[in-house]
């Protein structure tokens, strides 16, 4: 018998806690949509936010919205519904979209670090290196790379045979919990998972950390004002990077085992990061705040 649907056990089985999950995550998800929508609209309509940094921030907010949407709505609906089933096809779509937008977010963060590196370390050549044409090509490469990554993930998942238990101890479909249910030896599949998702997370994290170290080192020769501005931007980027990559590395770079804490760790990067990104990038950024005030106050 092959399994045609799975049962998502969600964050908790307790009916009282489920109501709390519904309320809290509905607020988080709506705040995520609102925050990222404000950034997307502000960047698209503002004349002052035309630099590559905001071009990439636009795509980060877009990726955040979609990434959150791959998991949050089902978590919220399932918290109140009696029947927490997800069909096999829906489950596979969720694996694909989750990894697609997750990978997109990681690669856009790398582009933002590259942009800051060029702006701070090669200020005189910045406009020629990071011109609109180059930025557009980089974003196209991000889309292609995300597609390749998620196709690899879905290829691994589609090869798994499911013939018995169908309860996923998670709030969304991902390879790790699905490996537990497969009726085959999943050692090789897990190795491939670690070498795909695990490597992307770890290598990207190292690249980002290195870029910030290089940036901080090169700030010695800048004026106090320039140092303060660059530090402010890099600090906000760094907070986002740690919040996103810490949980990612914990989940995807280890032997085939699932822990009860995995679900809470996953909440950090599937729901926490997309919610915090707009806050971190706008509250720490005067230009975005000014553009938002101008855009929304003029309309009233």
Automatic annotation (TrEMBL):
Residues 35-281 form the G-protein coupled receptors family 1 profile domain. It is a multi-pass membrane protein. It is found in: Cell membrane. GO terms for molecular function: G protein-coupled receptor activity; olfactory receptor activity. It holds the Pfam family 7tm_4. Keywords: Cell membrane, G-protein coupled receptor, Membrane, Olfaction, Receptor, Sensory transduction, Transducer, Transmembrane, Transmembrane helix. GO terms for cellular component: plasma membrane. The chain crosses the membrane at residues 20-41, 53-72, 92-114, 134-156, 197-219, 231-252, 264-283. Its main location: membrane. The keyword Transferase does not apply. SUPFAM superfamilies: Family A G protein-coupled receptor-like. The keyword Cell membrane applies. Belongs to the G-protein coupled receptor 1 family. Putative odorant or sperm cell receptor. This is Olfactory receptor. It comes from Lynx canadensis (Canada lynx).
């Amino acid at each position: 018998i092959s399994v045609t649907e799975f049962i998502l056990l969600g964050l908790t089985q307790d009916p009282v806690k489920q109501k709390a999950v519904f309320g809290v995550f509905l607020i988080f998800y709506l705040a995520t949509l609102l925050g990222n929508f404000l950034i997307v609209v502000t960047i698209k309509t503002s004349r002052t936010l035309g630099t590559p940094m905001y071009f990439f921030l636009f795509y980060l907010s877009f990726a955040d919205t979609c990434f959150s949407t791959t998991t949050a709505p089902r978590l919220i609906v399932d918290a109140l519904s009696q029947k927490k089933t997800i069909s096999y096809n829906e489950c596979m779509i969720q694996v694909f979209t989750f990894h697609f937008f997750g990978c997109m977010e990681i690669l856009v963060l790398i582009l933002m670090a590259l942009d800051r590196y060029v702006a701070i370390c090669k200020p005189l050549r910045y406009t020629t290196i990071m011109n609109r044409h180059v930025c557009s090509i980089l974003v196209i490469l991000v889309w292609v790379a995300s597609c390749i990554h998620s196709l690899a993930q879905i290829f691994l998942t589609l090869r798994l045979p499911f013939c018995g238990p169908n309860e996923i101890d998670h709030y969304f479909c991902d390879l790790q919990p699905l490996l537990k249910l497969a009726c085959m030896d999943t050692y090789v599949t897990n190795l491939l998972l670690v070498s795909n998702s695990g490597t992307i997370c770890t290598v990207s994290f190292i690249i980002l950390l290195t870029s910030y170290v290089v940036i901080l080192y090169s700030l010695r020769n800048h004026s106090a004002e320039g140092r303060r501005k660059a530090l402010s931007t890099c600090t906000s980027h760094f907070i986002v990077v740690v919040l996103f990559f810490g949980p990612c590395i914990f989940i995807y770079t280890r032997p085939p085992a699932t822990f009860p804490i995995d679900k809470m760790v996953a909440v950090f990067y599937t729901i926490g990061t997309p919610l915090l990104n707009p806050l971190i990038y706008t509250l720490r950024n005067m230009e975005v705040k000014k553009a938002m005030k101008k855009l929304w106050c003029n309309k009233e």
